[in-house]
Write a structure and sequence with these properties.
Blueprint: E1 5-14, E2 20-26, E3 37-38, E4 41-43, H1 50-62, E5 64-79, E6 84-98, E7 106-113, H2 127-138
Parallel strand pairs: 1-6
Antiparallel strand pairs: 1-4, 2-3, 2-7, 5-6
Length: 140
């Protein structure tokens, strides 16, 4: 039996007052998924609390401070070339401070209405999850 390695990732679903979520586009500095859009976030470091990781990743990637207000959901996928099974925790958040400033990992940001998500080249591994989230949120 082959042992599979796991990694944990956190994502922030940040909505503005107009009902749009923040997406960031991965730059060519990334070896995976360059040019694809996603919710901000990233990997949890060894020994790091996942909530601390979410705050750190948001600050690093967007310059924004946040507060977690709920659980948006979880998904997973396999990164075949690394043999990693990625677990992704997505949290609903609100902005509490900061100004939008992108890290070199991303080259663009957009506030996108949930019904418009499908028009973006979303990160392939989480596209279905993001679209399902949008559909459920619209039906509330």
């Amino acid at each position: 039996m082959t042992e599979r390695k796991f990694c944990l990732s956190v994502r922030a679903v940040l909505m503005d007052t107009q009902g749009r979520c923040l997406l960031v586009r991965r730059s060519t500095a990334n070896r995976r998924m360059a040019g694809q859009w996603e919710w901000p976030g990233g990997g949890v470091d060894d020994g790091e609390d996942f909530m601390a990781a979410l705050h750190r990743e948001m600050m690093e990637e967007t310059g924004l401070r946040i507060e977690v207000i709920g659980f948006a959901g979880a998904t997973d996928f396999v990164i075949a070339d690394d043999g990693l099974h990625a677990i992704v925790l997505c949290m609903d958040v609100v902005q509490t401070g900061g100004a939008l400033t992108l890290s070199p990992e991303h080259d663009a940001a957009a506030w996108v209405a949930l019904p418009e998500l499908s028009r973006y080249p979303l990160a392939e591994q989480v596209r279905g999850f993001m679209l399902n989230y949008a559909a459920q949120r619209q039906n509330l």
